[in-house]
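lol ok so funny story. i was supposed to be doing the assay writeup but got distracted and ended up predicting the structure for this chain instead. priorities right. anyway since i did it might as well share w the group, maybe its usefull for someone
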Amino acid sequence: MIHAEPTHTQPARERRPLDPSLTALLRTGPFPEALRAAVADSGLSLDRIRARLQLRGHRISVATLSCWQSGRYQPERAGSLRALASLEEILGLPSESLTALVGPPRPRGRRLPRPTDGRGLAATWPGAAGPVSALNEMDVRWDENLTRLSSHTRLELDSLGRERAMRSRQLLRAECDGPDRWITLFQREEPGPAPHLRVGAPCRAGKVLQNDETGMLAAEILFDRPLSRGDTVMIEYTIEHRTPRPFSTMMQSSLHVPVREYVMEVRFDPEALPLSCYSIRTAAPGSRPQERLLNPDTTGSVLTVALSAGPCSLGIRWDWEAR
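and the output, tada:
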């Protein structure tokens, strides 16, 4: 059976008391959540909504409505905003209740491409049951809606070549309304106690999962407030190792989404420099890594920088003199 909407103009939805949770979202937002709740409360499918908008002279596709609901983008052009006013009528909402939640126009211009192979956080730990299980207990829904503008990670080693601490600073930008946390995960190469996590203000630690047998740490770093689309946030945290500290010959990071600027640094004790040191970059699993010789500076540091990188694997490896 073929269903078609009537050819006459549809009346606005009959006004009735709105669900209290929807009423609250219409006051506070964010826009995508309020729109999703309003659509659910109306009982209309996106295709029915599209058809009713078309009867009012607005050509808005189901895909566009879906993107508005997901926060991928928002109505900004004049025609879209006029359609939004009609959408409020169709959904039986107070005038301008959704329009008031639309944020400032999104900056135009070139964006770093998102990965198209479906890889997420869990895919950076293939075959690692512990990390994957930990990520399943974390709220990772915002991960791919946070653009990595800049990332700087520094590993500090002691005079015996053991890992003392890892310091990380991330500059992130929200690509939708709502992100309120960042997920970090650390796994020792050899079994041992999980490290301590210290989070710099104004952020704070949320859920933290540790395994003192495998040395795994998974944690949520909570922002001081939910971000609106276009907002940026700087987060800083330190992972401090407990005794016995792990002896190390490599630092490696898997980038599952693009990063505009990624700086990886290893700081050796100036009295305990390695025999040789190389940066490593692997474009895809199984491909041949590219290596480049690195020379420590006067502080004992080496670093490698990647611009507009990812998804890929980056690292620094070093060899010690015979001890």
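Confidence is low (pLDDT under 50) at residues 1-14, 106-119, 125-129. The chain has six helices and 13 strands.
back to the writeup now i swear
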